[in-house]
Amino acid sequence: MRLLIISDTHLPRRARDLPAQVWAQVERADAVIHAGDWCVPDALDALQARAARVVGVYGNNDGRELRERLPEVARETLGGVRFAVVHETGQATGREKRCAERFPDTDVLVFGHSHIPWDTRADSGLRLLNPGSPTDRRRQPHHTYMTAEAAERILSDVRLHRIDPA
Question: Which UniProt keywords apply (predicted)?
Fold first, then answer.
């Protein structure tokens, strides 16, 4: 399965729409994972209309309507890989240990909130991924997103992509 991993899109506050580069990845992906902070239901609707499959959660900037449509934590098996998706994981210090304890039956945890790309492993083997943000880089040098492949219970070819300047 081809995966697109995004978070913190903050539409339309930080951008009117997702960058064309991200929409191109949506068209290629078998599933899109979104780790919250959509900001408006229209962002979810647009992604669901164009993506083959969407796995998403709400974030701290998402209001009542998004919270009614999306869970705080999503769990999906994609390509045999057990994913959990959550918006916030707390401070960076001790994150791997905390998340391994909170998500013991998970292979990959996708999270957002910080807008800081992250790819680490806990001692338990849990892989933690944060794709950054394709629309709000904050103090990061680039807007970013991730792609990956999941097949036969293995996550491979995890790549962090920079958004090309317009």
Answer: Metal-binding
Q: 11, 135 in Cβ contact below 8 A? A: yes
The pTM of this model reads 0.96
Side-chain-side CA neighbours of 140 within 13 Å: the count stands at 19
- State whether residue 143 is helix, strand or coil: coil
Write down how long the chain is. Answer: 166
DSSP 141: S
Q: Which residues pair with 82 in a beta bridge?
A: 77
pLDDT in tens, 35-72: 999 999 999 999 999 999 999 999 999 999 999 999 99
Q: Where do the structural domains in the chain lie, given as residue ranges?
A: 2-162
CATH node for 2-162: 3.60.21.10
The string of pLDDT tens digits covering residues 94-115 is 999 999 999 999 999 999 999 9
Sign, CA torsion 47/56/92/60:
positive
